[in-house]
């Protein structure tokens, strides 16, 4: 609903849509490492709780304001909220299970739950937005997110994690040094960081461009209903794909093949949308790209999680998230410039080329 709200209700231009994503990522970039260090030294659980509260507040505020600058601010707060969740959830479940094979399966099932839960959310919030307009629907969704954070407080205990003793800055520096050493010394981790920089950098820009492109080529139905329907189909297809690979998620080469195939599929969808003559074929291209990009993120998260130790896990995931945010800033700024100087279609073609480059960066072996 945010995409529809920014395009239809707020009337933002293509360059403004992408620049909002860049600013969102800039805020997240600044606070990502401190948030990861808090999760590794203070608490995984409370990182998630504060994340939900901030995210709910940002969603609620977005539905109440209009204009480029106010929306820029609310989306930056939204980006900040991601910091506190980034890696903390994966680190928490890894602590509780203490079994890499079981963690991989749970992370895939969690991604499935997110996708299938998205269907319920899109149908419910989409129908609500259709009845009362996107702005008020987003306000109610933000309130629900705040309640979810309070639910985590009362429902889920943190059993295995132990806060690090000593002064925060001293222990945090030690954790950061160990996490950074892992990234520098492992060619696999470096390749994953570089691929994430490109693939997730493109994902942020694509999420803001495809609603505009569909409107430009003649979306002949209500945008709220159509975007909600696309979201439902994306989620169902993604959940089905994860169900197919779940049993083989720890098999040799599965994670690499998954990362490569999803990059290539996303590239094909992005380029297909650039050349789509009407909204039907354009929507099919969106389904391919937007369905593949979350799967790529899931494969990358599981792959890098297998390379980390418990004491630095959230911080390593924060470093990976920083690569994502840097990619959204650098790739997003470049794509915004192309959209401003040329067309949205040209920006989509540039996005497809970056996704193919990400696929080529991934190593042939996991070692």
TrEMBL record:
Q: Which residues form the signal peptide?
A: none
Q: Which residues cross the membrane?
A: 12-31, 51-73, 138-157, 188-212, 224-245, 257-276, 347-363
Arranged from A to Z, the UniProt key words for this protein are: Membrane, Transmembrane, Transmembrane helix
Q: Which PANTHER family match?
A: PERMEASE, MAJOR FACILITATOR SUPERFAMILY-RELATED, TRANSPORT PROTEIN-RELATED
What is the name attached to this protein's record? MFS transporter
The record's annotation in InterPro entries points to: MFS_DHA3_Transporter, MFS_trans_sf
